[in-house]
Design goal:
Helix content is 32%, strand content 22%. By secondary structure, the chain is an alpha/beta fold. Helix 8 (209-216) runs parallel beside helix 9 and helix 12 packs parallel to helix 13 (346-369). It binds 5'-deoxyadenosine and iron/sulfur cluster. Residues 156, 158-160, 163, 165-166, 200-201, 231 line the site of iron/sulfur cluster.
Length: 435
């Protein structure tokens, strides 16, 4: 029997849902009386909240584990959490003797018990995916920054052939409507002005995402609502209408397309075509003409020819993305695409990714430039590097640099004066609007 850890550090990698999960694990450990280790100080317990989505994720996680060993040979209690923990399971303990416990994304409410088991000399593993959700077992939300994440739905039933999510996060499950609304309320009371509703397939939310958004919009003190990530096939007319009708819903939509080639979309099992995707966006633009569209792309999926890739560039031009994320295809063990023929050579992938990046940057620059001279409201979320400079998010989610004495969490009106592909600069228009 060893002592229970007194301090903890949670390190989250990957997507926003992991950031959310990391916060909730920290709150859970805090509720057990542990305190967060100060910056730069050793923690008694380190939780590595890992991501498995792309390239060498497991290897990276094990090398992160290895680096936790201290110079004097001692080490913290090490918890492997997140999607690598789910994918590796008990095998993780064989691959690294340093790992004390393995906890999957659907089991982390058990973390305090498992830490106690470690103190009692065990090396517990829990990668169960119980039908009863973990959320009920987590402590209530108390404090929040100005912009908070809120998971409303988890898992995915779509089974795109390249993707591990249906295996690491499990089947689609939506949290009960009233639980989500109560958590939203608590986050706003704790200081949140903006909520981003999260789900691997957020727009497949059971109670109707638009209904949920309309309900959450009624919370006093909440100024902005966002959601991510959406699947094109679940963009209902109701959700599109909400963009026209709910003022607090920001004009931004992250709608991954992955490829512009119907042949590749079919091989990816995306169950939409380039054309059906564009039609969704046409409707969205009627509802909300200034909407910023963001996307995800994979280059070099097995069988992707130059012509297929050109179709991807064509859809980029047709949409005019305000922002986007693009990745080289990486085979994920256990997914159908991992055994498909027609692997694309690394050099070809590199070259295509560069061309795609260049094209996407042109469009985001064009989008940002079009806002020059306009007045917009930003939510200040951090300090800039220059004295007196603050950085906030525009409604379209770009970072806007402005000189102001406003504080983090304030909403201020600025006039946009210049634009880069990933950020914009502005000057203060009036005094603080909301504090
Ligand atoms: N290889 C490359 N990119 C991937 N993504 C998901 N799985 C893979 C993979 N195996 C990308 C998709 C998805 C984003 C979150 O990560 O573009 O939308
Ligand atoms: Fe993965 Fe496709 Fe589900 Fe997105 S929709 S999480 S890419 S399987």
């Amino acid at each position: 029997m060893t002592d229970l850890p007194k301090t903890y550090r949670v390190k989250s990698f990957g997507c926003q849902m992991n950031v959310y999960d990391g916060e909730r694990m920290a709150e859970l450990l805090g509720a057990q009386g542990m305190t967060a280790a100060a910056e730069g100080e050793d923690a008694d317990l380190v939780v590595l909240n890992t991501c498995h989505i792309r390239e060498k994720a497991a290897e990276k996680a094990y090398s992160d584990v290895g680096r936790l060993k201290r110079e004097d040979g001692s080490k913290p209690v090490i918890a492997l959490a997140g999607c690598v923990a789910q994918a590796e399971g008990a095998e993780a303990k064989n691959r690294s003797k340093l790992i004390d416990l393995v906890v999957g994304p659907q089991a982390y409410h058990r973390l305090p018990d498992m830490v106690a088991e470690v103190a009692a000399g065990q090396r517990p593993v829990d990668t169960d995916m119980p039908a009863i959700s973990k959320f009920g077992a987590l402590p209530a939300r108390k404090r929040s920054g100005p912009s908070a994440f809120l998971t409303v739905q988890e898992g995915c039933d779509k089974f795109c052939t390249y993707c591990v999510v249906p295996y690491t996060r499990g089947a689609e499950i939506s949290r009960p409507f009233s639980d989500v609304v109560a958590e939203a309320q608590a986050l706003v009371e704790g200081g949140a002005k903006e909520l981003t509703l999260l789900g691997q397939n957020v727009n497949a939310y059971d109670g109707g995402l638009d209904t949920l958004i309309r309900e959450i919009a009624r919370i006093d003190g909440l100024e902005r609502i966002r959601y991510t990530t959406s699947h094109p096939n679940d963009m209902t007319d109701g959700l599109i209408a909400a963009h026209a009708e709910v003022d607090k819903l920001m004009p931004y939509l992250h709608l991954p397309v992955q490829s512009g080639s119907d042949k590749i979309l079919k091989a990816m099992n995306r169950s939409h075509s380039a054309d059906s995707y564009l039609k969704v966006l046409d409707k969205m633009r009627v509802a909300r003409p200034d909407i910023a569209i963001s996307g995800d792309f994979i280059v070099g999926f097995p069988g992707e020819t130059e012509k297929d890739f050109e179709d991807t560039l064509a859809i980029v031009d047709a949409v005019g993305y305000a922002s986007a994320y693009s990745f080289k295809y990486s085979p994920r063990p256990g997914t159908p695409a991992a055994t498909m023929e027609g692997a694309v050579a690394q050099e070809v992938m590199d070259e295509r990714l560069q061309r795609l990046h260049a094209r996407l940057a042109e469009h985001s620059l064009a989008f940002n430039r079009a806002t020059i001279g306009k007045s917009t409201r930003i939510l200040i979320d951090r300090k800039g590097r220059l004295p007196g400079q603050m950085i906030g998010k525009s409604p379209w989610l770009q970072s806007v640099f402005v000189e102001t004495d406003a504080k983090i969490g304030d909403l201020v009106d600025v006039e946009i004066t210049h634009a880069l592909p990933n950020s914009m600069g502005g000057i203060l228009q009036r005094e603080k609007v909301t504090t």
